[in-house]
Amino acid sequence: MSTPLPYKLPIVLFALATLGACEKVLPPSPAENELLDGPVAGLSGEEHLQFLNGDIAFNDEVFTPETGLGPRFVATSCGSCHAGDGKGTPFTTLTRFGQTDSTGNQYLHLGAPQLQHRSIAGYLPEQLPPGATFTMLTPPANTGLGFLDFVEDADILAMADENDSDGDGISGVPNWVNLRGYVQPRTNAISINGKHIGRFGKKAGTYDLLQQTATAYNQDIGIASTYEPYDTYSGNEIDPEVTNQTVLDVVFYLRTLKTPLPRNMNDPDVAAGRQLFAQINCAACHRPELKTGESPIPALAHQTFYPYTDLLLHDMGEALDDGYTEGSATAAEWRTPPLWGLGLSPNSQGGRYFLLHDGRAGSIEEAILLHGGEAEASRNQYQSLSDGDKQKLLIFLENL
Amino acid sequence: MKKILTTLLGFSLLCAAPVFSQPDSSAWLKRTASDTSKSQLNMDAVYNRPFLQAGKTPVAVGGYVETKAEYLRTDGISEGFGFQMQRTTLFLSSSLHRKIKFLTEIEFEEGTREINIEFASLDLQFDPLFNLRSGIVMNPIGAFNQNHDGPKWEFNDRPIAATQLLPATFSNVGMGVWGKHARRGWVFAYEAYLTNGFDDRIIANGENKTFLPAAKPNPARFEESFNGVPLFTGKIAVRNRRWGEIGFSTMQGVYNKFEEDGLRLDQKRAVRAWAIDFNATLPKLGTTLNGEWAWVSVDVPETYSQQFGDRQRGGFLDIVQPVLKRKMLGFDNAVLNLSLRLEYVDWNLGKFRETKGNIADHIWAVVPAVSFRPTAQTVLRFNYRYLAQTDILGNPPALTGGFQVGVASYF
Lengths: 400, 411
What we know:
The complex is a heterodimer. Chain A is α+β, with helices and mostly antiparallel strands. Chain A contains 12 helices and 12 strands. Chain A has helices at residues 5-20, 22-25, 45-60, 78-81, 145-149, 153-159, 209-221, 244-255, 268-279, 364-369, 376-383, 387-398; strands spanning 72-73, 94-97, 114-115, 118-119, 134-137, 175-177, 191-192, 195-198, 290-291, 304-305, 313-315, 333-335. In chain A, helix 3 (45-60) packs across helix 8 (244-255), helix 7 (209-221) packs across helix 8 and helix 9 (268-279) crosses helix 12. The radius of gyration of chain A is 24 Å and the shape is globular. Mean pLDDT of chain A is 94; it is low at 1-5. By secondary structure, chain B is mainly beta. Helix content of chain B is 6%, strand content 54%. Chain B has 2 helices and 20 strands. Chain B has one domain (2-24, 67-82, 131-410): Beta Barrel (Porin), CATH 2.40.160. Classes of the chains: A alpha+beta, B mainly beta. Chains A and B meet through helix 1, helix 2 and strand 4 of A and helix 1, strand 3, strand 16, strand 19 and strand 20 of B.
């Protein structure tokens, strides 16, 4: 005897209804402006493939002792420090030590400039040498790095005002750095006495994303490459543990990550906050608009973008002076950090803020109040704002 | 959507087709029915399977197949619709003597991507309370590792806590003893084995977390111990005919190579796991509850990254409610079940040294399911799976949801 229809029908209807409801019950994409990862628009199919290869190497490849981790290291993968391509936390803070002036690092023979405070089994991690000055640096967000990479040197120099000739209390100088042997100067690069303008890193001590990537592989993960072929334990040159192609894929990935998208720009409070930002002269260093020059990646060439940085060093006062220098950057000088994506920082910092170079500021307001030196006047103006205006400024910053 | 729907329905029919078209082999093969009495424990699962026996030969064969199709989406991005041949498993058992038995279980996972001898042991019974087992044994940690056959479960995926926290299915070469004693509706049992065990991949792997299953792909563990220290696995279990079964188990060993050629490399680093498992069927309602909870402790070097946790915990609870037991779709004793699985794993318990904030790195999942059993040995399963995975920092979780349809059957 066959099963009566009333028993078959509900089963079939249930299956159809459930399948029909797919779209309603599957997790949706977060809004595009809530995400930091994803490629810039306008990449070709070939470029998308290289982006994906770089994405895998950056976010999915975890190093083990078997694949070259360490012996001394800070993190086991690139993604460990930059969750979702956003800012990192004190868990993966880097410690740089040993350089107090422009004469170079006096502790290179003791493992400087970067401390690897973790190690694989059987090895001892690096200890900070007694007496060495140091600074701690939280990992920055990766977004929009390619745009920053292709800003013309001339445009950066045009924003500099070393002697404060306009009398606004803000100078702004580039960090003149020596190029690593494998680094090629950009098109239209400007040099002085063989030194070039650094633009990556908290003190702008790194010239380009190839140097950034190769040194991060080496100093953060303990992975030797043909670019940085050093063992983090012995300091000796060793065989490469990552291929050139992988390094270049990661460089391409970092270059072609999209810029953060601002949110709620038509909100009246956000608009008012933007005006206050300019009014109290934050924009003198946190330049809203920059443009790229020539680029081998067509999608990045001659683009206007909104990073809120001038890529220059500014004296930030005594409170942020850690006594550590890099290139021509003095101990109190820090490169203006881009503010784009600032409000999304908690999404990669475990639901809270770790701001400023070492993550000491737990909120945007706290970060503002820790500004000194060239930013002291702006900080004072912020403090004199009404509570309502302060709130509007903070809302604006959260929506960048 | 229409395409997915059509494909899913088509796949369901394909899955069901072999059930209807299988030739009758009863003329020359005798099916040894599995024991469904309530005195069976999880530890009996290895022998408590349907076998086919040719005439009066002492050899019996069996196996099961498990396959699924799924459409999953994580944070709005899907890899699309896919089919997976999860596993084909073959059993071969032989009674050499009424007190000497051998059984082997060979598993082919995802086609032939992974081929494992999951069990290959000789059992010698000296007394029901004292049996010697030797060969490749399933370490009796938790219940799922012992009782994992796909056709027994109402869900397409194995529990996360059983397969990723505990490393089911986990078997090693070794030997040990086991025994059972039944009295007045109660059954008491124990197992104790020494086997080869883990290696240092459990804290050095591509998962970027302490991950006991990372030791499984090392085929050398069937040849020699990684460090010369046996892994102890022990379990005691009690079953009452009315109330069900509860088991307590532990696994204790050393995972690292602390010495090589007589030279000291490191201190001995311990790996320990404890598990409690239970299963019961509620009277009158017929609801089956089946769960397991485990704790893992690993001596991770102080100098290593906190990315690799030294304490983990997790478990699952399956609730299965038969809603229809009658002749359906031409099957005399068919059963339709509604089920729910709840699962949770915390890969890294503790606080960050740098911030004193909680380390997250956890996952939870909810899996409602409908399953249809045309016979006790065959199940068609339809699951909705929703899981939230939070990274080590506690950032907003990656949300995955999707549908799975599959079939598992003994043959």
